[in-house]
# Entry
Amino acid sequence: MKTHPTFGVVLPAAGSGTRFGSGDKLLMDLAGQTVLERSLALFVSRENVQKIVIVTSPDRFEPYRRQLPAMIASERLAFVAGGRERWESVLFGLRHLAQLKNPPTFVAVHDAARPLTPPSVIDQAFRTTESHGAALPCVAEPATLKKTAPDNSVSETVDRRGLFQAQTPQCFGLAKLLSGYETLLAAGQIADVTDDAQVFERIGERVIITPGDSLNMKITTAGDLALARAIFTHGSAPA
# Structure
């Protein structure tokens, strides 16, 4: 019998990584551990995390398992085959969690390539989800934004007030997020969904913005990995 709300974690990791270049970015070394190990480490020590699901292509199951010896009890970790798009992989992860004998109350969807997330970002997202049903870590857009004309010249400057960059973990009630995904899938409105908060937006549910962090970067290119390594080297990475 549950005595407090629990979280499941879905780590989508089925992408092709074409922008990164050669090699699997999740298996790249980041200050003595792989990117995947560091992303998992963000959640494995949390007592309220019941299950972690890595959603990826089946041919990566064994290589990823070999990177995680003694790091996480096998009963807390599951590998699920991913889909062709991110939304499909997340849906498969949500279905897996929902089919557990005792499904978690909430779910956190976290990019597997975000290994530097400060614990405070996760803490606040979890607390807000428990009290308000959904949380989206964000940072205010810091850049001056431009729109271009067809000839690639600047057509206008975009007002950045009220604009935010979405990060992860994005957290929700498990049953409600899964229902939202299934509803949009049945209605043929899922193909252009790029993050999980967008699902809640489309089904009319409220998502609370919580503080993100500039350290909470996603490793997409080789340059991103070099920057992440520099952050660890100079001691600025989260504990």
